[in-house]
Design goal:
single chain, 98 residues, mainly beta, OB fold (Dihydrolipoamide Acetyltransferase, E2P), five-stranded antiparallel sheet, 14% helix, 36% strand
Amino acid sequence: MQGAPVAAFGRAMRAEALTEDGDGSQARPWGGFVGEVVTVQPAYGFLRHPRYSSNLFFHQDDLVPGLQIEDLREGTLVTFNAVESDRGMRASQVALVR
C-alpha cells in the first residue's frame, strides 16, 4: 500500500495541471476547474482538486444536462465550478472532461 499515496498525489497533480490553459483563458465550456471524482454514491459524490484542502461535495442536480451520476466513476476527470454553499465550498456544473 506504500504506492497508494504517491498514485493519489500524481492524479491530483494531473488534475491541477489540466486547470492551466497557458494564457489564462477559459477554454472549457463548463466549469472553471478540472478535478477528479473521489467517491460516487447513488445521488451525490465528492471531487478532489489541489486548490481545496477537503474534497468538494456535489449532488446529482449539480451535473450538467445530459450527464448522469451513473456516468461517473472513481478517478474520472471532470470540469466544475466551485461555489459557496451554507455548508462550505461545493462543486457545481460538473461535466466530463472531453
